[in-house]
Amino acid sequence: MAKINVRNRNKGKYYKDGRKKDPNWEYRFEIAPVGGERKQESKAGFATKKEAEIAGGKAYAKYHNTGRVFEPKKISVSDYLDYWLENAIKKNIGNGYAYNTYLGYESKIRNHLKPMFGQYLLNNFQDSPDVIQLWVDDLKSRGLSKSMVKSALACLSGALSYAIVPLNYIKHNPCDLVRIGKIPINIKAKEHTEYVCPKNEFLRILERFPEGNNFFLSLVTPYHLGTRIGETYGIDLLSDVDFKNSEISINQQIQMENKQWYYRPPKYESYRTIKMGKTIEGYFKRELTRRKENSIKYGPYYLKTYLMPDNSIAQLRADIVVPYKEIAPLCVRENGSLLTPNSFKHCSRVVHDELNNPLFHSHCLRHTHGTILAENGAFPKDVMERLGHKDITVTLEKYIFNTEKMKHDTIGVFEDAISDLSTDKKYGGQDVDKVSETAL
Fold first, then answer.
1. Helical ranges in 302-379 per DSSP H
2. Less packed terminus of the chain by CB within 10 Å, N or C?
3. What value, to the nearest 5°, has the Cα angle with vertex 49 and ends 44 and 53?
4. pLDDT tens track of the chain, all 440 residues?
5. Side-chain half-sphere of 428: how many Cα atoms within 13 Å?
6. pTM over 0.85, yes/no
7. Burial 61-94 (b: 16+ CB within 10 A, else e)
8. Cα(270)–Cα(8) distance, rounded to whole angstroms?
C-alpha cells in the first residue's frame, strides 16, 4: 500500500497540556496523475493523529475501489440489499418506481431477506440456489400466500439481477433456479380478492352513501371507470375531465410519502384517456356545482387545494393568494378539506359492519367494472386499455372473472352456432322429446 502521510499543520506549535486536541491534523496520499501533473488526495481538520489515520485509510481504500466504500467481493448480502434499495429504488422514486413500491421492498428486505441471508457474502451467495429454495419452501410451510411468496422472491431476484447488470458484482442469479411450486388455495382469501359487487348490492351501498356524501364519488368512479383507488382520489376535476368530448384522463395517482400527499405517475405509468358515460359525467358536473356553492357558503374559510412545485398537495384558506396551480381533487369535504385513500377505510368499515358485507374492498369496484364489460361483450383489448394494464394477460387472468352469466352466455353462443343441426326440436329427423322417451 502506498504511504499515507499524517501530519500536524501547526508546525513548531506545541501544547503544554498533552490532552488538548489540535484540530489541524491532516492526511495526504498520492493519486493518479492527471495530464502528467502530480495529484494528491488530502483532508484536514481532524482533532487527533489517530482520527486522521483512520479517515485517511478509509479514503485510500475508497479511492482504490473506484469510489466505492466497499469491495464487491467482500460485501455482505445485507449491505448489498441496503445499497440496492437506496440507489436503484429510492433514488428513482417517481422515475419508474412508486413510493409504495419502495416501502414494500424495504419491508420484505427487513422482515424476510436480511434475517435469512444478510450474513452471507454476496459473492458466495450467487452459488446458493438450494439455500433460497429451502427459504421459499419454509415460507410456504408457514402459510404465506402464493402472491406473498412470489413477491418476496421477486424482490430478492430483482436485487440480484441488478448486481449482475449493470453492477457486474456477480455473474449469475441463483433465484433463476428456484421454483415456488404449488400452494394450496386459500378459498376465503380468493373469494375476497375476486369479489365482484352485484348490481343490487352496489345500489344498497349507494343508499348508505348517496350523492353528496363524502364517499359517493369514490364509489361510483371506480365502478364506472375502472380506476385504482389512488387514481380515483388523484383525479383533478379542473384539468383531467373533458366534458366536451366526454373523456377523462388518468394522469396521476395520489400517494402518501413521509406523511405528505403527492401526485405521482399512475401505476406502471399507465397514463390513459378513457370515455365517460353520461351517468358519471352528470355526477362530476353536479359535484363542481356543489363545490362552487360551498365555496360561497364558507367564504374565506373554504379550503382551496394547490399543487406545489415538488408535486406535493397543499391546502390553504380561500383568502390566501399563492402563485401555485389550483386543483380540484375528486373527493373533498363540504368545506373543501382533502379526502384521501386513507379516508376510504371508514367507508369500507361501514360496508363490512353496518351493511354486513365483509367481502367489499375498494379494488372490487375496479374488478366489477372490468367484469361488467366482459360479460357484455367488450373486447379484451379495450378492457385492458381502459383499466391501464401492461398486457392482456393481467386483464384476462385477474380482472375478468368467469361469472355465471359468462358461463351461460358461452353455452348460448355454442347453441346458436349449431342451431341448424337441431331445428324445430328435431335431431336426425326425429323429435328430440320422443328420442328422450325412447331412451327412458
1. 344-353, 364-375
2. C
3. 75
4. 457 788 887 654 434 444 456 678 898 888 888 777 888 888 888 888 888 888 888 887 777 666 665 567 789 999 999 999 999 999 998 787 888 899 999 999 999 999 999 999 999 999 999 999 999 999 999 988 888 999 999 999 999 999 999 999 999 999 999 999 988 877 888 888 889 999 999 999 999 999 999 999 999 999 999 999 999 999 999 999 999 999 999 999 999 998 999 999 998 889 999 999 999 999 999 999 999 999 999 999 999 999 999 999 999 999 999 999 999 999 999 999 999 999 999 999 999 999 999 999 999 999 999 989 988 888 888 899 999 998 888 887 776 656 667 777 777 777 787 777 655 554 454 554 554 455 45
5. 3
6. no
7. eeeeeeeeebeeeebbbbebbbbbbeebbeeebb
8. 60
- Give the three-class secondary structure for 277: coil
Whether residue 99 contacts residue 230, with contact meaning beta carbons closer than 8 Å, is answered with no
Residue 180 C-beta-side C-alpha neighbours within 13 Å = 17
Q: Where are the alpha helices (DSSP H) in 166-308?
A: 187-193, 199-208, 216-225, 229-234, 278-298
Question: Cell 351493511 maps to which residue?
Answer: 355
Q: How many C-beta neighbours within 10 Å does residue 406 have?
A: 14
Q: Give yes or no for a cis peptide into 166 (omega within 30° of 0).
A: yes
Backbone conformation region of residue 370, classed left if phi is above 0, alpha if psi is from -120 to 50, else beta: alpha
Burial environment of residue 156 by CB neighbours within 10 A (0 to 12, 13 to 18, 19 or more): buried
Going through 235-328 in order, the beta strands assigned E by DSSP cover: 241-242, 247-250, 253-257, 260-264, 272-275, 303-307, 313-317, 325-327
Structural contact between residues 162 and 88, judged by C-beta atoms closer than 8 angstroms: yes
Cα(238)–Cα(399) distance, integer angstroms: 30
Q: Is 245 helix (H, G, I), strand (E, B) or coil?
A: coil
Residue type, position 174, single letter: P
SS3 letters across 14-74: CCCCCCCCCCCEEEEEEEEEECCEEEEEEEEEECCHHHHHHHHHHHHHHHHCCCCCCCHHH
CB atoms inside a 10 Å sphere around CB 166: 8
Q: Which residue has the cell 355454442?
A: 414
